[in-house]
Amino acid sequence: MTGEVLMEITWRRVGERDFPLLRMWLRQPHVKRWWNHETTAEAVARDFGPAARGEEPSEDLLAFLEDRPVGLVQRARLLDYPEYLAELAGIVPVPDEAMTIDYLIGDPRQTGQGIGTAVIRSVLARTWAAHPAAPCVLVPVVAANRPSWRALERAGLRRVATGDLEPDNPVDAPAHYLYRVDRPVTGD
């Protein structure tokens, strides 16, 4: 890892006060291409409100670098989403208590600088601490989204399968890569 700059990422849960920021990020071409999300105020409140209010089991987390918000991570236990779990289990074995993440870097000027990799590494470390029963994190990525799966690889995840899943954006083919990282073994 020579030449790699360490970045201190901090976190907090998304709140309703963050919805204008999420709307702005979701409108950015580099995000919109892969997230394909409605960006009206009503749509953002509809889709992010339940997690912000704790009414949904997933966690929407804002990532900060030097006290500036840089990205969003959605983290969930796959057991809490049985249809999604079944879809992934059709391609790769899914251990009980496995987690998944989705992520974005909001500002296009902050892409290509290793921030995404730092965000992924940081959220993984937090996942092991916050979810002690989680044996691994599984992440499906559209095969065409090379920057995303390269960030996963740089963060230490390994490609464990290729299969067809319903893409977020209908312009994409269903081909996905599935990445996995296992809970680090501690020397207790």
From TrEMBL:
InterPro entries: Acyl_CoA_acyltransferase, GNAT_dom. Gene3D superfamilies: 3.40.630.30. SUPFAM superfamilies: Acyl-CoA N-acyltransferases (Nat). Residues 9-184 form the N-acetyltransferase domain. Keywords: Antibiotic resistance. It comes from the Bacteria. PANTHER family: LYSINE N-ACYLTRANSFERASE C17G9.06C-RELATED. This is Acetyltransferase. It comes from Streptomyces tubbatahanensis.
